[in-house]
Specification:
This protein is an all-alpha fold. The protein folds into two domains: 128 residues; 42 residues, no CATH class. 65% of the residues lie in helices and 0% in strands. This is DNA methylase.
Length: 188
């Protein structure tokens, strides 16, 4: 099964038939699932060099491009067209990527790697409206809720996820994350 998956992913890479996004996605899965070990390589870097004559940094650029496009795809149909257009966004965190991409699209500038790079560089000072590290700002009530949730995770782990499935915990974690990242606050 793993061997078949590796063959499928390598066919995507060999043909690059679906572009940089699919290439990055395939490389990411090979790296994350450690499928490169099936080819008797000890490391991902050794695998991409021997199998694809690709440097580790190039492979990671494709992986980062895939991750950026995956992050941007929920906000619209207009996305960067190639890996070099994505590169300036890769240095930003996911929230900054989305905000910068929206501002770039709103600017009306032509979609090119140089325009995106120039815009991102010049847009940095306007990030004053994007707060710095505010992880220390948390109410006692929120911290108590997080602590209670962490205790429930510990309990579930100790009982080997018998009363609460690990899949359910991951699903609800995703729901909470989506609520946190949602733009509009729903006051009912």
């Amino acid at each position: 099964m793993e061997q078949e998956r590796l063959i499928h992913l390598e066919n995507i890479i060999a043909g690059k038939r679906r572009g940089f996004y699919e290439l990055g996605k395939a490389l990411n899965e090979i790296k994350q699932s450690r499928l490169y070990r099936l080819t008797l390589h000890d490391s991902f870097a050794a695998y991409v060099k021997a199998r694809w004559d690709m440097g580790k940094s190039q492979a990671y650029r494709f992986i980062h491009a895939y991750q950026v496009i995956k992050n941007l795809s929920p906000i619209g149909d207009r996305l960067p067209a190639n890996e070099s257009q994505v590169r300036p966004l890769a240095g930003l965190n996911p929230l900054e990527q989305r905000a910068a991409w929206k501002r770039f699209l709103a600017s009306g500038k032509e979609l090119s790697a140089l325009n995106i790079k120039t815009f991102i560089r010049s847009d940095k000072p306007s990030h004053k409206n994007v707060p710095g590290d505010q992880t220390g700002i948390i109410s006692n009530e929120y911290m108590a809720a997080v602590s209670a949730m962490m205790e429930q995770v510990r309990i579930a782990q100790n009982d080997q996820w018998q009363k609460t499935s690990q899949q359910a915990a991951i699903l609800w974690n995703r729901v909470i994350r989506e609520k946190i990242l949602a733009k509009e606050v729903n006051h009912e």
